[in-house]
Amino acid sequence: MGMTDTVRKNPLCLLWTIPYLLCGVFSHLLNDPVSHALFVWLPPGVAVGAYLLSPRRDWLLLMAGFFCAQLLLTLVSRGQPATAIVFAVTGALSSMLAAWTVQRLSPRAEGPGFVAALLAGAVAGAASSALLGGGWLWLTQDAHAVVRLRTWVTAYLAGVLILAPALTGWAQFRPRRSGGPRMRDLLIGAVAYALMIVSTFMTFDGDMIQNLPYVVTFELTYLPLVFAVLIALVWGTPGGTLAMVTLMLMALYQSAQGEGPFVEANDPWHVLLATQVYLVVTALLLLLVNTLRGARAQALENAEQWRGRFDLALAGSRQLMYRFNPHDGKLELAGDLQDAFGLPANAITSLESLAAHTHPEDRSRLTMHWAARRAGAQDRSPLLFRVAHAAGGWRLVSDRGSPLSDFDGSVAVVAGMWRLGEIEHEPTDGGQ
């Protein structure tokens, strides 16, 4: 039994350690080299995303991989074996706890509930990470323990809430069989992406905003967010992920240079924490946009599938469905008119166009029948009439339907079915 479980584990999940290491190196480049305080720490976002996207049977393998990756990062940055081991255990366990909390609260990893579950998981992971790592620093009487513990929770929360939604959102993307986005959407997304890059550079560039009032520089931070949301709307989940990663890299890099609207002269490291809060808000907003957009797309796909099954049922039973609105005189037909009468779908849209295609001997009877229906008559006996077929002959139709009343007793709509019979050929077909 144990051998079977071991064989089923996927060693390719260890590839998650590569982006974990890359994010760790990038984060260390932005952090304080003196106190080693974690103002930016993105690896937990990769780890939580990896746990969420991997089956439970691979979690132990993932935990071992993240343990080794974190051990390497800490040894290179600090060179203290004991602290490196504690941090490695802390990083692997806290991220797994965060992912477990998310899955426990939102097993399907979709919908608005997933956003709340992700927040709860990030808090659980940050608390456990601060408890274990901060406790170790306190026990070892680290000189900068208080400073590191103060920023630990914020950096962990930001790392999870920025990257985990991007990874899970990208994983939920499924290519459509329709061939991809339209050229118009591609162009709008490309323009929005270019404008987001330009507005982000302008917002976080110190030379461009140094002469502007603080209120103006703060208001400029909304511009990249608006363009990021627009990208997510027209390009979908992949576009939202691309926008989030681009915005994150640009904002963090320029903020680390001491630039941007969140700079404080008395606290040079405050800018990184404030920038990450800004990025967290953006990430959660994009996650909500992708969630609502995905729910709408799924609803449209379900409706299209249902319509396809309904059309097949109509075709298989040789029937058409109709709906007549007595207020505007519009007649809607559902089914294959091409197969039934050899006509395009928009050939019969009113009682007048129906009468024009009806056999001359049946028109008066059809007109009287529909006049009674419009008056509210509940006679449900089928009406037999013939409709011209484009290839010649007359298709026999059995109409069974009835009017449906509105709240005031008036006729709201007339609905029913046409059962299709055989095509009759008469010597007088051409006399219509």
From TrEMBL:
Residues 337-416 form the PAS fold-3 domain. InterPro entries: MASE1, PAS-like_dom_sf, PAS_fold_3. It is found in: Cell membrane. The lineage of its organism: Bacteria, Pseudomonadati, Pseudomonadota, Betaproteobacteria, Burkholderiales. It comes from the Bacteria. The chain crosses the membrane at residues 12-30, 60-76, 82-102, 114-139, 151-173, 185-204, 268-289. This is MASE1 domain-containing protein. Its main location: membrane. It holds the Pfam family PAS_3. One of its GO terms (cellular component) is plasma membrane. Residues 35-294 form the MASE1 domain. Keywords: Cell membrane, Membrane, Transmembrane, Transmembrane helix. It is a multi-pass membrane protein.
